Amino acid sequence: MTTEEKTKEEEEIVPTKTAGAILFCGCTDFKNVGRTKQIDESVFANVNVPSKISTFENENDLEFTFIASGSAAAHNVAIDTKGRLWAWGRNENGQLGTGDKDNRNAPSVVKGIHFGENADGEGEEAVKIVWAACGKNHTIAIDSEGGFYACGSNKSGQLGVPITWSRQKKNVDDERVEFVKSASATQAKFVKATCGVDFTVLTDADGKMWSFGCPQYGQLGHGDDHEYNMKEGTVKLAYEPQPTPKMIRSGDLNAEKDYKVVKVCCGHNHVACFCEDGKLYTWGNGGYGRLGHRVQKDEFSPKMVEVQGGDRNLIPKDAILACGSTATHFSACMGQLYAFGKLKVSGDNTMYPMPQMDLQGWVLRDFASGAVTFATCQDEMTVTWGAGGYGELGYGPEGKKSSACPDVVPSLQGKRTIMVACGLGQTLFLVKSEDVKEGVPVFEPLPETKGGEKKKQGAHLIKPGGAKKAKK
């Protein structure tokens, strides 16, 4: 392959993004977030206004192109302009890829032999990371050559590598505390990844989807949940892990349909995607109407969602798509936002796509769904809503903790948000660097805590914003 051909191929694989600075708000007790509301804020103070993280401020000219968390994830990842992967948060299963199981209060570069620049800064032969995704206890990363890496829990085969398993015994969790590169037999080059609780869906350069992990609700999209009875004479159902990446070729996306997916995302246990044909497809757990098929029924294969307007309301290629724990959002013709599933903690479920009139007329740049929170952005305005309990909506110390309807994040008005990511009790914002040089609070995390233990002395600090000083 000539240099010109290789450059062209890499341009097709590496997503084009705009760089910026990361702001964070929400819970800082990564061990206990989502498990209890009794957080010791004298040590792990909630960050209730989007703030810089001091770790990033200590490096000059540091910008990021990508941020990710997950609706079931208590950890976060980010990719900087050098192709280095940063990770922080809960690490009880090694999901940060740091070589141990110590929680990380502060972001740190993943120091794997396959990642980023070499120790001497000479990164010519180094692999650069271009995409990443977070499950509940695992993380997936994709490099500029189309290879994928995984770390964390592999109990359900969600890492895409072999596991120790038998039908007679309880699954052994083959945790990987460092990123391992998949030795999958497929020759596909992958460009994107998305994770549910304990499964993974990859998109290759040809627009085909591959899945692996837990098949319990049909979320792998292969037409089967691989259910079996663990013990004769009793009813004890279990689900056979599927650790080998397999192309999704069933249902309305079967072998006869030469589909090309544009976007795909995972909720806790369901998947949604739309293809170049402008149609939306969902499968997996159908509870609360999160699949949009008007019934609460699991789907083991991709099934097209009927959207109001039919072929006159096709989904454009630049549409947004996001899955939360029990909800799905997407935009269709003219940018109209639709949603279905359990959209609020209380109230009725929405069983089919319904227009969300609160954001009518908005041209959305990005959208993210957490467990019970949502975030979106357009132009110079960022909006959040949902059942926040840790300040993750970013309304500030005097602002409300929860919001049933979309509301503007006050401190981000006038700032250009490029990308948003929602996790378990936390929200990340990727904002144009020049918009946050001054006047933004700085969050200073505690040092690492082994196994999530609290420090007896010291506490997280949030300092008022000011101009960043250059290193001498």
TrEMBL record:
Record-annotated RCC1-like domain positions: 18-341
Domain of life: Eukaryota
Any GO CC annotation of this UniProt entry: membrane
Gene3D superfamilies attached to this UniProt entry: Regulator of chromosome condensation 1/beta-lactamase-inhibitor protein II
Keywords: Repeat
SUPFAM superfamilies to which the protein is assigned, alphabetical: RCC1/BLIP-II
Record-level Gene Ontology MF annotations: small GTPase binding
One matching Pfam family: WD40_RLD
PROSITE patterns: RCC1_2, RCC1_3
This protein's name: RCC1-like domain-containing protein
